[in-house]
Every structure is written in C-alpha cells, then in structure tokens.
Design a protein that fits this description.
The protein is α+β, with helices and mostly antiparallel strands. Helices cover 47% and strands 18% of the residues. Helix 1 crosses helix 3 and helix 10 packs across helix 11.
Amino acid sequence: MERKVNQLSTAEHQLEVTLSPEEASPLIQSEVAKKIATIQIPGFRKGKAPRHVIKNMYGESLEYDAADKVANRIFWDIAKELDLKPLNTPGLVDIKYNPGEELSFKVNYEIFPEVEVLGYKGSEIEIPKYEVTDSLIDEEIKNLLSSNASYENVDKVEDPATTIIDIDVYNSETSLEMGTPKAIELDYPLLSEAFKNNAPNLKIDDIIEPKDFYSEQKLIDGYEKTNYKFIVKGFRKKTLPVLDDEFVQKISKEYKTAGELRECIAAYYKGYYEDMTSRIYNSRLEKTILDANDIKVPATFVERVLEYFIKEETEKAKKEKKPLPKSDDLRVAYKPYAEKEAKWQVLRENII
C-alpha cells in the first residue's frame, strides 16, 4: 500500500492512497460478500441467490460501492495510525477503481492549522496576591459560631452587640405586613446611624420610615416611591457557643480540637486561593495570546464549536424544564464565543 499526505494549505491536508490489485481485491470482495448477504431476490432465500444472478441485476455497482467503503475504512485506519486528527468529516474527492485492478483514492480533511504562536513566552502576567491571615480565619470562625448560636426572646435592645431585631415590611396604605420578618443585627452595614442610635428605644410594632432605617440613598428613594415602611416584630438575645474542643467535636466528626479547626479553615482557603490564582492567571494568559495572534480558523471548526454551545444550552433548558430557546437565536448569540473558543483551541494545540 502506498500512501502520502499532501498539504493543500495550513489548515487542509489530503491523504493519497494506492492499493495494488492483490491488496484491493480481498478487501473489496469481503465488502461485496457482506452486501450480497443482505440482498433479497424473488425465488431465492435472502443472501442465497447465485452470484451470476446478482451480477446480471447489479453489474459492477456492488464492487464500486464496496470500493467506497474500503477507501473510507482505510482512511480512518491510517488516520488513527498517523494521528491525523481531522476536524471535519473527510471528503472523498477522487477514487479510481476497476474490478481486478488497483484502487487509488484521495481524501481531503481539515486539521488544526500550524501557526507560530506569539505572546506567551516571556509575557508578564499580573495576578492578585491572596494571603490566608489570622483575621480571615477569625471571621470564618465567627460565622461558624454565629450559625450555631442560641436565641432568647427579650423585650428590647439591651446590648446592641448581642441583640437581633426582627423587622418586617409594612404597607402603610393597607396596614398589612409581608409576613416574613428578617433578623437584623445592628452591625448590618446598610443600617443608618440614626437607627443604630435609637435601637435601645425601639418597641414592638414601632413603624420605621425608610429614611430612618437605611444609610443608602438609592434604597431610601426606592422605598419612598411606594407605600412600604418597616415594622418591629420582636427582639432576641443572641448567645454564641464557646469555641472549645467540645464545640468542635459537636459540629464535626473529622476534627477534635479548636486548633485543628483553625488549621482546616486555613488549608481550605489556601487551596481556594491557589485555585483562584491559577484560574486568573490562565484567563489573563489566554487573553494575552488571543490578542497577540491574528489567525484564520477553519470555518467548519467554528461551526462545530458553535453547534456544541447550542446543544449544551438546549440540554440545559430541557433539564431545568424551561422553554427551549430558538436555535437561530442561540446561533447569533453564541457565534462570537464560538469564534473565540475555536481560535483559542487552535492556538493551544500549537503550543502543546
């Protein structure tokens, strides 16, 4: 078997193959035999008609069809052996065969174009530096203690640091409440100083104007366009558990001491920051390389990536039981992303 890879362009190659009569004949006859086994001719059992009867009906067409199948199979065998990696469905552009003679054919296929990638060697990529500090661990432990706190109803705010105020939204026109009070702690960053200072004087059923509750003017403006105000529904004293080994063992089967808990939190954030730093670096490096390389990507490859995006979005809508988006709308929306992703895959292939 003779074979040769011709380079038609940087993104299109051609495999040229020639089989001698001795190589081609048994492969083609094997395909012909498979086809004959499926042929039903009146007066004969399926696949049992004599060859001369079939020959009279089909002529040489069985061998020509078999030659196409043999060529296709040989192409994929060679593609696997030589690691050709066609991007598209290969096209049989020229096949020559006569029964008893040699078989030759040519197959065109697209590949990742070979390009010289610029902008990735020696590039300085700025990435933020993250550090696991004691204050970060302390804040995480504080949240953990808070989520395991106990509460006791009280009549008013006695200690602003440990008292929760239950606040509901109140419609001043209908005198109705939303019925879903929210627990407000006095260190909530959006609270106004006026509200914090007046907290010890609050009583159940007090009505609070938005301007006296919020510190953000945008929030105040939004509420003042409506009939909504706020109403005090109750007070609760919040007691945090003691951070000791007993508490740690109560909330975790893995850790035994407060020291181990701190180490666990530190290890988690260390891994989290390393992963985030890696993602940021890769994203910025990708952008640097994309900006530095103006290359032409095979249209069939862009189309393949676009079809993948459309399929993923459609499957997601089905899984979430949402209305299926129109394919044409998705095609327009995802075309720029498909072009970018296809370009990046071509560049990455040439880097690797």
